[in-house]
Write a structure and sequence with these properties.
Two copies of one chain form a homodimer. The first copy, chain A, is α+β, with helices and mostly antiparallel strands. In chain A, 45% of the residues lie in helices and 18% in strands. Chain A contains ten helices and eight strands. In chain A, helix 5 packs antiparallel against helix 9 and helix 6 crosses helix 8. The longest helix of chain A has 21 residues. The first copy, chain A, starts with a helix and ends with a helix. Chains A and B meet through helix 1, helix 3 and helix 4 of A and helix 1, helix 3, helix 4 and strand 4 of B. Chain B binds a DNA duplex through helix 2 and helix 3.
DNA sequence: TTTCATTGGTTCATTATTTGAACCCTTGGT
DNA sequence: ACCAAGGGTTCAAATAATGAACCAATGAAA
């Protein structure tokens, strides 16, 4: 591990739970000599990655980070960032995977991939907006997004797209409630006949649901084993996508796992 | 300059205009050996601060930055806190207003607002670092910040950005001295042609100048009345921003006394 | 108010890492 | 088939990082 990595790894000790760290605490966390840690801290401060509270002498994350995050957001389109994750997931599952972002009261597909290894494939149009009440993605957003959005959809007429499209508000409210518990949503033939899908919410830096990661497959290919695979992959993938959008990374997922993906 | 600073300074070459940089370009920008730069880049990638486009092999800012920015804003919401002040000032004056923080020997924009009520608007890139000798913000920091910083800038070459960029150390020293008396700084076409700006220092709780509040407007819109409005608004606003940073400015202390400290 | 423990920060000889000129490999253009 | 340019690697030499011991300031306890 080079000097640069040693210094940068110090920044990883910050979290919402631990926003300020003192010199001694750092040396304990990093398990390195005090002098070394101190020099690293000084250099990080000089470059704006940390700033030191002049009262407590503790260190906290500095303004340079905000500027860089800003540059990345503005210059690195979300689509590009999401491509490898969606591609990997699609390859892993051999099914259609897409990321869609909330746009008014519809979902706008950002990117999708379909590594066909089965005979039948699910139809998906990247340029078509998805309705909230009839897709697993929409239901995921309703479950984890703002309450107003849910109210709005509940009070509007619900267009029938396929044989099993939800059409009664009470039905939708029940489903959404269930998905909130589960952490992911499911829809069977709500948008297109013979197609079912699973979706998990994607969060931005302020923990707001801004979109979804979803897997769609022919209903005929669905079974318990498949469901478990999909749900597990979806959880992992949604966290990765959230991370891309600056959202929070649950404690039980390490950076290594993300790097490996 | 230590290894850490050398590596981190590579990140500063990114901007909205230059979101991706290749190895050779980096070596030219940094003026360092290719092998050195490459090792630094590799280590930054390993830590998530950069990622490499697998097609072009260019480097771009990585996702680690988003997480850190997230932590900082959630635990130390300086940007959020400053937004209403900057917005109000911009609305009041009908001009571009920004708060920037000192980061090494540059200023890093934290937030800006531009409530356009005039035909022309000033260009401002929130993701671009500001030089100290060529902007009113920089001059304000030099006037009220540490003496070493001023010495450092005086002894370094002064890049010419626009028609009236200060380029002689004696000139800069004079200006800074004058601003110290006034309590605010002014720059006419020092950074961009046809643009002038006013700035006032922002202090933290230990009375150190950590940044600035600035107003930028087309030189063509400048007149005495405007200047008086801007300066009055700037004094008031800068104190508000200082307050946000815990550096509230006691009424009985004049700016001259601060200067002495 | 003296003492002691804790934390932040510094020094300097030793040590290990960083450095860079020269090199190789791949790609894309002609 | 050739060349130019960019990305990446090697290894002896140079330089910068390291850490045990030290100092200073703060604050709680005796």
């Amino acid at each position: 591990m080079g000097t640069i990595s040693k210094a940068l790894s110090l920044l990883n000790y910050f979290s919402t739970q631990r926003p300020e760290i003192g010199l001694t605490e750092f040396t304990k966390l990093a398990g390195r000599d005090k002098a070394t840690v101190h020099r690293h801290l000084v250099e990080l401060v000089q470059n704006g990655y940390l700033e030191q509270d002049s009262r407590s002498r503790n260190y906290r994350l500095g303004p340079a980070i905000l500027r860089l995050a800003n540059v990345r957001e503005r210059t690195f389109p979300a689509r590009e960032a999401v491509i490898p994750i969606v591609d990997a997931l699609s390859s892993e599952l051999g099914e259609l995977v897409h990321v869609s972002l909330l746009q008014g009261d519809m979902l706008s597909p950002l990117y999708y991939a379909d590594k066909i290894i089965h005979g039948t494939r699910v139809h998906f149009d990247e340029a078509e907006l998805l309705p909230l009440h009839a897709t697993s993605s929409g239901l995921a957003i309703l479950a984890f997004g703002p309450e107003e959005l849910l109210q709005h959809v509940l009070s509007a007429p619900m267009q029938k797209f396929a044989v099993k499209t939800l059409s009664r508000p009470s039905e939708l409210r029940e489903e959404v409630h269930e998905f909130r518990q589960q952490g992911f949503s499911f829809s069977d033939q709500g948008f297109e006949d013979e197609v079912c899908s699973f979706a998990a919410p994607v969060f931005d830096h302020s923990q707001r649901a801004i979109g979804t990661l979803a897997v769609a497959l022919p209903t005929s290919r669905l079974n318990l084993e498949k469901q478990q695979l999909v749900v597990a992959a979806l959880r992992k993938g949604a966290d990765q996508v959230s991370f891309v959008f600056g959202g929070h990374l649950p404690e039980n997922i390490s950076r290594d796992q993300i790097d490996a993906a």
